[in-house]
Amino acid sequence: MRIDRIALSGFRNYDEETAEFSPGVNILRGENAQGKTNLLEAVYLLTGAHSFRTRFDRELIGFGCDWASILADVDSDGREQTIRLLFRRGQRRTVTVNGAKKTSAELSGVLRAVLFSPDDLYLIKEGAAARRRLMDAAIPQLRSRYAQLLTDYNRLYENKTRILKDWREKPRLLDTLDEFSDGLARCSASILRYRASFVDRLGELAAPIHRDFSGGSERLSLAYRTVSTVTDPHAPAEEIYYQICEHQERHRQAELDAGQCLTGIHKDDIDILINGVPARTFASQGQTRTAALSLKLAEREIFKNETGEYPVLLLDDVLSELDAGRQEFVLNRIGGGQTFISCCEDGTIRRRTGGRVFAVRAGSIRREE
Ligand code: ATP
Ligand code: MG
Known about the structure:
This protein has 10 helices and 15 strands. The chain is of the alpha/beta class. The strands form 3 sheets. It has a 6-stranded antiparallel sheet. The mean pLDDT is 94.
């Protein structure tokens, strides 16, 4: 899994720019606000996902431009493929693979990437949304149906939320409430089974990494937490569906009173324990960083185990946030796949990785010899 070439037009601060990447380590070096993260964002968008910075495609289009495009040659499962994304103001994005039109969901899996940014270092201490983001960024790249389920879930959730908010002024809205609740229960049942398996695998792979990282002294474990009536998240979807309906029934009046959707997988979380106690509450700063790094490195291993290939790894400014020991640990574990590292300096990282260096400056990408 790698990206060989990219061409950007009207994308963020890039007018027209191209670059050819190394199959190993690529270092994007440059001052602040030059376009390093923009380039990583372009690579990430090729996975079919939404940007890790914005929900709005219009923000990707360069100031003063009507459209933006990202064209890339990638090697995926041993096949050369050309992906093109086109973003036009006021229109849906267009995706083509080898000239054939695809949906964003169909693009998932053509190029797979794992992003690692300084925000991820707070994965453990932050609210549940950060841990849901981890699941929702990874799973669609491995299970294309998941992307569609999430889209459907979000649409149903918005509709239900609107009904719960406005039903007092427009009581007729209540006629369709049950229909939306039912749709949400069905989507939730499928989504949570995917999430439960992912968290199991993540836990299995993160535990040995964290053990190594902590010199053998710490035991990291994960548990998926979802709607409380669900007794076994691996049970058949039909069984889970009935358990979610039961939860909805119990909370029906509370939802009407609160004017909000109180039940569903949008509240899911991952419990993260170190030596049996919740890391979010008890772990030190250093321990939570180490655990976060272990989770991100484990995420990369899941992709490798599932697909036989390492995903493209995007390290956005993360190394400068780490002490020497943790930097070394990460750099020692990123072999075997293509990696992009953005940073403000190149000296030590270049020496330690032997990577290809690109100077990124005011929307230009220049390879350094
Ligand atoms: P840092 O080291 O501070 O993280 P960076 O090199 O990663 O910097 P980027 O986040 O890539 O910087 O942003 C580079 C510039 O792109 C910023 O100055 C930003 O204002 C500009 N920019 C963002 N969106 C657009 C857009 N849609 N059109 C034009 N320029 C944009
Ligand atoms: Mg940046």
